[in-house]
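Progress report, Aim 2. The chain analyzed during this reporting quarter is listed below.
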Amino acid sequence: MDFKQLDDERTVNCELRDSLSELTNAQREALIISTLGHIQEEIVEFRQHWPRRSWRNDEVSPFDSDKKYDDALTEFADIILLLGNVAKYAKYDAEIVTDAIQKKLKYNQERSDHKANLQRPGD
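Predicted structure tokens for the chain:
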């Protein structure tokens, strides 16, 4: 995702575009909580596209069906779009989000409590 799109008012729910800057913090908090609930629903819908029972070999994976793959991708897109809405409600712009992601990735690479960081190839 190009996080610069977070700065575009068109990414937010249509009914809020004109009034987003006028929302109170309490209204923003309510929208964040509500949208997080929608994200949870979309995550469940996305999860349902992936085989869940390892003992069954007749479940179709999105990797086995173009339609199932596209359906899963659509659910994934819903999650990303809703996360963009949360960012807007929380007053996070593209620069803030990009910086936070870069800091988190750097932190994860350096933290000693991650098994992945204890033994790297070539060490």
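The CA atoms of residues 17 and 32 lie 15 Å apart. The chain is about 55% helix and 0% strand. These observations will guide the mutagenesis work planned for the next reporting period.
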